[in-house]
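so the lab meeting is tmrw and i was supposed to have these ready like two days ago... anyway. pasting both below. for each one the top line is the aa sequence and the line under it is the structure tokens. i havent really looked at them closely yet so no promises
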Amino acid sequence: MADQDSESLPQLFNRAEIQMEKLEDSERSPESISALIKQFETATKFVSILGLFSRNESADEISTADLRYLLLPAYLARLTLKLTDGRKARLDAAEIYIVDYLQRCKDYGVPGSNAIPDKDLKISIQENGSSDTDAVQTSTVKSPQDQIAEAVNKRAAKIAAFKHKLESKEKAAALRKKLEDGSADENEQRGYYYNLFNMWILDLMEELDFVREEKRLLEHREKLSRGASEDEQQPVQSPMSKTLSKFNKPVTIVKNELQKQVFGAGYPSLPLLTVDEFYQELVQEGALPAPGSKAAKNLNYMGPTQAELESDDVKKEQDVESDNPEYLRNARDYDDWKDDHRRGWGNRIGQG
């Protein structure tokens, strides 16, 4: 296993992705799956610290080299579902990862994301740890004719999705061959990732239904168990179960404390960490060197201090509020530069 301290984000992601492909073709132990989850979680932290994505941009504005990192929550969802210990917590985490991936695809306008229904973007976890999946079942009773029509529509939608997935798989396989032999231009590279995103959208939409159905079954069984032993006290949580619950929580990162308060509403009962908190966690885990240390100097990397980060934020806010002429001029010049330097103009290989 490579030393993660000296690995860059592309190296870490490539290594984990290769292991992910091997995992799909064979049975692996829970320990190896957990280790792979840890690698993808570390990659997720790196992506957030580097600030590669912004909800204000579309998929076409994301660098071709960075597109693949949109798959991180999809990979984490698939791996999390392969683990059976603490199943309810695993299902909760997988649901959050799936919804996170689908929401990102929709936010960035990934081709095929229009097929994602809004109902799939709601996380069924309440603050008390229970889910609101039962509320889905309390809908108005439908007539037999409506039920038949709904079943026919669902069947037709599944057949269409299956055909679409096969087409995307064939296109992705053909484009991957070009990527591997180095003959793919930038448009073909982006086309490969878009087909890959589409395949994962169709797969995870289907898995999300299974996840929520399994959660309903587990909750129903738990209610029956509580009803059978009404007078019994709730069992005390063991240290092992507490440890499991700690590692079952998804990696959700926000930029600062203000976003932490705002976006926390989207992941109720799950604590969020800011980028600074995640950075300190990476330092403690040994995934990143401490700012100013000898290891950081050897890597030509000096982590910004909290004071520097706060100073930059304050200066930017002051420039915006005071309409600083230099700040505005730089912003306009950058917009003009983007107008004259369209995406892909610098790479004309294979385009005639």
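ok protien two:
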Amino acid sequence: MLLSTVLVLAVSCVAVHSFKCCVPDQWEGVLGLTEGLVQNGQPAFVQGYVALSYDYTNKRVAEYVNLTTQGVPTLQKIIIDYNKNVMYTIKEEAKYCRAVQPAPPLSRCVPDTARETSRFHLGAGNNSLKVIAYEIDVPDMQITAVTSMTAQDCLPVGELMYGAANNVPFLASMGYVNIVPGIKDPSVFNVPSYCDKAEINDVPGLETGNFITSYIHRRLGFFQ
């Protein structure tokens, strides 16, 4: 998914950021993504979108994932409940449900160790949006992310990620669109009844070959 707005670089610097940027308590939006990776010596290409519902107040995240990997589509819903410490991966047509412990979440705020790399705006004149970009290292996942957030309200704009997950190198570009405050329909967090039979696996929920959503789970945990 491409942003059609014009990107204008206003100020460029490399420094540790001096103010706290924390996402709102509740919001929804759509994340478009494109990812390239090399697995077992073979290149692979992933593209698609994730519809997100983020609820810090009730410590939960819902995702509708629509990805295509080498032409093969994947449709699934993911619900993370940090109150119960469980992440459900749901395929509704097959009535399939897998339950695992979610990976430990990052802070819901841009970490103090993040390096501010640039300030810029999207659009022009009265239609411009001020944005701040940060570089964030995630050592336990061998990932570096350059994250762009709005200067006001600290909403995600885009993200460039590179590194390795499960020893698989990858490069990914993501953009957020149609963000709105609040949760329109709380039923997005409802877990289907057939998930009651799913035993919770104590292996952290890093889906093999799905490194982007694994990192999104970490970034959207935000519950520390």
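from a quick look at the 2nd one: The chain has one domain: 7-219. The helical segments are 211-219. will dig more after coffe
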